[in-house]
Amino acid sequence: MIPSAYEFHWDLGHLVFLGIFYTVVLVVAASVALAVRRWRRDLRQRRAAAIAWQETFHDLPDDRRRCRHDLDGADAGRLCDHGFDCGTCARHRACVDPAGHAAGAAVGDAPAPTGLGVSEDRLYHRGHTWVEPRADGTFAVGCDDLLLRCLGRPDHLEPPRVGSRLELGDPLASVQRGRCRTRILTPLAGTVVAVGSLEHGWLCHLRPDGPAPAVAHLLRGREAAVWMLRELESLQRSLSADPAQPVLADGGVPVDDLMQAYPDADWDGIWGRVCLDA
Amino acid sequence: MDRGLIARGAVRTEFWRFALWLLPWVVLAAWGAAAAFRMFADGLYHTNMDNRFAFGLWIIFDLTIIALGAGAFFLGFLTYLLRRHDMEQVLYTAVIVGFVCYSGALVTLAIDVGQPIRAWFAFWHANVHSMLTEVTFCITCYLLVLCIEYVPIILKNRRLRGIPSFLVLEFNLHRIMVVFAGVGAFLSFFHQGSLGGMFGVLNGRPFAFREGVGIWPTTFFLFILSAIAAGPSFIMLIVMTVSRLSRKQLVDRRVLVELGRISGIMLSVYVVAKLLDTVVWIFVTLPQLGFDAAEFYRNEMFGMWLLLLELTVFGLLPASILLNRRRRATTPWLLAGGLLTCVGVALNRLVVTLQTQSLPTFSFDSFMVYWPSLSEWAVLLGVVAYGVIVYSVSFRYLSLFPRERELPGISKGTAS
Questions:
Q1: How many CA atoms lie within 13 A of A259 on its CB side?
Q2: pTM of the full structure
Q3: Which of A73, A202, B60, B156 has its CA 20 to 30 A from that of B96?
C-alpha cells in the first residue's frame, strides 16, 4: 500500500500500519542481504570445508561425539561440543600433562584387542584415517583398519593430486563401490607431495605448512584404542539384524571385506557414518 | 535410479513405487489445473458462487489450510525464540507444510479473484478500509518468509550439499532463521486474526458480528487461538501418517505427545474463549441489535446441533483427550485428539463463512443453500494433490527428520 491509494489519509492508523508493514519488509530484505554478504565472504575465504564439518558435527549423534577424555577415562561421559578441535579446547588443556600428552595415552593400557591394529606411532582422525610422521618432515596419511575392512575392494578410488593444498576436513579422496560412494576427509592440513593407494597401505604424503603442525585434534594411544573399539561396536550394531548373534566379544576378528560379508546392509549409510561424510 | 539424491542412511522405497504413489496425485493436480484454466478463460460461471455466496468452497478451504498451516509459525516461534530444541525434530516438516498451505491458499485465492495479471492491484490500489488488505499483505510477506525458510532445507539435499557454494549459502541462511521465525510469528499472528476480524466487523450480518477490543472484534482472537491449537495437531497428524506409510519412526515419540499437549492446552483456551464469546453474543450483542439467537438456528442444515457439535465433539472432547496424560500417551487417542481438533477448525471456518451468507439479511430474503460445483471441487482437490506431491518429494529427497537415521523402523502392524 502506498499513500497514493484511494482514500489513504495521513492519520495515525494508516501510518502505524504502513510503518509496521515496511519495517517487516525491510527486516526481511536486510536479513537476506546479510546472509548473501556472509555467503560471498565465506566463499572468498574458502570456508566451505570448515562449514561442512561444522554441520556434520552438529548432526552427529551423542555416541559419536564422545570427548577424547571420555575415551581415556579422565572425564567419563563427556561429550565434545568443540567440533573435535582439541587445540582450542580449554577442557583439553586442563586434562593434558605439561608435555601435551593426555593421561593414559600409552598403547600398553589399551582395552581388549579388537583385531584392528592401533599403532602407537600413528595419530588417528575421527574420520578413520591416520597420520604418521616421516623422517623427511612429511606425514604419511592412510585409512585405518576399520575403514579398510568397510571399503573392502572398492571399484574406484580417486586420490588427491600431487601439489594440491588441503585444509583439515577437505575431501582427501573419494571412493566408490557399486552404488556406494564416500569422501575420505583430510586429517591434517598440508600440501600433497606423493600419492599412494589402498594397496600401498597409505593414500598420500602431506607436507604440513609449518614446522609444528596442528595435531592436537588427533587421537593416540589408549584413547585411540578405546575409540576404535567403540566404533567397531557401533558398526556391529549397524550390521546386526539379530542382536543375539555372536559378537566380537565371543571371539573372532572382522573379516577383510565386510561389505561382501554383509551385502544387504546399508553400506552407503555406513560408509558415510564411518568417514563422517554426511 | 535416484539413490544419489536420497540422504545417506535414510531408507526410502524404490523409485517405481514412489512414482506409482505420485501418479494419482499428479492426475488430480492436472484435473485441478485444467479447472483453474477454465476459470481464468471463462470466468467464475463454472462455479456455484453468485452475488449471495461471494465466498464459497475456496474461501472455506483457504481459511482452513491457513489455520492448519499455523504450525509453521508456531513451531518456529517455539524452536528459535523460546529455545524448545525438541521441536527441531518436526520443524522442517512444519516449514514445508506451512509453505504448501500458504502457497496453496494463494493459488486458490488467485483463481477465486481472477485476473491474475492484475494481482498487483491488491498492493498498488489497496482498499485502505478492508481487513483483507492487511491479510493480503501479511500472507504475501509470510509466503516470502516461508520460501526463504524452505531454501536451506532444499540445499541440505545430499547432491546439492556437495556443491560448496550451496553448502555455504545454506549455512548462512540457517544462521538468520531466528529473524524469520520472529517475523513469521508476527505476520501470522496478525493475518490469522484479521481473517477472523473480517467476519466480526460485518455489522450488517448479526450472525457474524462481534464486539471486541479496540478495532478488533472477538473473532480476531478466536481465529488466532484456533489456528495455534490446530497447527501443532496438523503437524502431529502428518508426521504420524508419514511414519505409518514409510514404516519408519521419524521423531521421538515424546515430541508427538508434546505436540498433542500443546495443542490440547491451546484448544482448551480456545474452547473457553469461544464459549464466553457465544454467551456474550447471545445475551448481550444480539439483544442490543434487536435479535434473538434462536432465529439463526431455525434451519435444519445449520441448526443449533451444529454449534453444539463444534463446541463439544470438536472442542471439549479433543481438548480433554489431549490434556489427559494417559490418553495422549496412546496412539489411537493421540490420533483422535489431533484429528478432531483439525476437523473442528475446518468446521468452524465452514460455519463462519457459509452460515453467515446463508442466513437472510432482509425480511423478504429467505435462507439459501450453496453447494460447490464440480469445477470448484476440482480446484480444491488439485491444490490438495499439489501439497501431497510437494511434501512427498521433499520427504524422499530432503532430510526432514534429523533423528530418522538413529530411530528404529516400525514392524508391520505396530503404531508409530
A1: 22
A2: 0.89
A3: B60
